[in-house]
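re: that chain from earlier
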Amino acid sequence: MNRPTPTFKPARLALLACLPLLSGCTLGGSTSASAENDRLRREAIDLKDQIAKLKGETDELKAKLAAASKAEGMKPDVIEALPVVTHIEIGGFSGLIPPMGAASGVRVEFYPKDGRDRFVQCVGAVKIEALLLPAEVGQGEPKRLGAISLDPPALRDAYRAGMLGTYYEAVVPIPPDMADAARESSILVRLEFIDGTNDQTHKAEYTIAPR
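^ sequence. v structure.
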């Protein structure tokens, strides 16, 4: 007896024909969503960079206008091209000196930067203080290790340039009775720069961890 040949109903045939299309739609949608997320991330990063750049240029413009008010007769294109300090950074190579043994001072590297985040020479006065931080948060107040002030001539003498780059350098003396403690705890360095060209004040902080 011959078995009847199986047949498919039209509805089933239509469903089978749509399966590849449905699969393609799901994959395509997933890929498109991933690509869109990547694009949005890139745009967010670009916008963040643009905002940082605009803020730096705005700060620089404010400083230039302040300088211009003190410099009568300066041409507009000269003012526009004039690099001025908009912020100060303390370098990561700051630390105790000498490298070993009893600490005699805190060596501080600092970098005046313009609105484009580039090093620029500066004229003015600098105050630096070093504070000994407590071993645990909330266990006492910071103790002052020492402080130093640089007037405009001393600041100019603090300029350094060589194989290690371009920066300013100052040393905060540490009293002998604090030498051992300085090796054992973190040190907070605070710096304040008063720009002699426009009276703007810029501050920076940096923590030196014990080694």
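Residues 19-27 have pLDDT under 50 and may be disordered.
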